[in-house]
């Protein structure tokens, strides 16, 4: 299913918005393609949120740019196994992203979903006691 198909299906099913994540390979799209997606979503009356994994400074910034083009007010970041091992990096990115949010990305909120972090942490603690 393409992003455009997904948007039309979401509208058909009565949704008011969608979350576009990495399974749609957003990083492979050029600005023209992103603006086209935004235009279609606007015409359908759908809002767009962006979702991502692999919390690195470069990946975060790329997704923030995509969110800006798509007029997304929310960037949801899921802490994956890759970022679980580097909690200091996560804390650094949280702090550094605040500076970006004061500038050109003022309307964007970043939601860092730590549920996987807690699950991995619990598994680690259980394994330590075995």
Description:
The protein has 130 residues and is of the alpha/beta class. The chain has one domain: TIM Barrel. The chain has helices at residues 3-12, 31-44, 57-69, 81-84, 87-102, 115-129; strands spanning 17-20, 47-52, 74-78, 109-113. A four-stranded parallel β-sheet has the order 1-2-3-4. The protein is globular, with a radius of gyration of 17 Å. The termini are far apart.
Keywords:
alpha/beta, 130 residues, disordered C terminus, globular, 4 strands, single chain, 6 helices, four-stranded parallel beta sheet, TIM Barrel
Quick overview of this protein structure:
With 130 residues, this protein is of the alpha/beta class.
Give the tally of β-strands. Answer: 4
* Estimated radius of gyration: 17 Å
Provide the low-confidence segments as ranges.
Answer: 116-130
Provide the structure class.
Answer: alpha/beta
Q: Report the mean per-residue pLDDT as an integer.
A: 77
- Count of individual domains: 1
Helix content: 55-70%
Across the major sheet, the strand order is 1-2-3-4
First-residue to last-residue Cα separation:
45 Å
Task: Furnish the topology, listing elements before pairings.
Elements: H1 3-12, E1 17-20, H2 31-44, E2 47-52, H3 57-69, E3 74-78, H4 81-84, H5 87-102, E4 109-113, H6 115-129
